[in-house]
Amino acid sequence: MAQLKEILEKEAQRATTEQCAAIHLVKEGSFLRAYEWSAWLCVHFFPDLKVTHRALKGGEDIVFVGFPQTSLERFTPQGAAVVEAADGQIDLVLPSGTFSPQAEVGQLAADFAAWKQSQPLTEASKKRQEAEKAVAERGSHPRLTDVMLRIMAYPLERHSPMECMAFLSEVKQQISEIL
Fold it and tell me: Quick one: which of 37, 133, 140, 29 has its CA closest to 88?
């Protein structure tokens, strides 16, 4: 599985209309996920897909959609070519007429940005943002209630054991600064 940073870098490489007309799917367990621009394209063709909008540390946020690998054929737009990459990722190359010939990358990027902002954040992400904002307003020293909010908002089921251990280490450090 590719790292999120690598996935986001690949999604940001949309300089031509040909690059804009590709859906990058990442294998995650038995599911395929499309992030950012690719998620926007998936929802364009399949509006019933559930969009997840999650806040990340540092004020960034991501959107993604997912579906079982066994449903790839169902979620492949008509006329799209399925290309499997060496790293196990799958690209759906949309037909050349997907965007009008006059479509400009800048306008497509603006459309994507507007769509992304219209997607509601998950509840856990809202709580995390509120806790981070409260800490930022008071300076670098969080209150115990801020740490507790962070713990309550952390989705254990969506993280690996190593990520949970790193999170626990951060929380432990914050508590030691408070006490």
Answer: 29
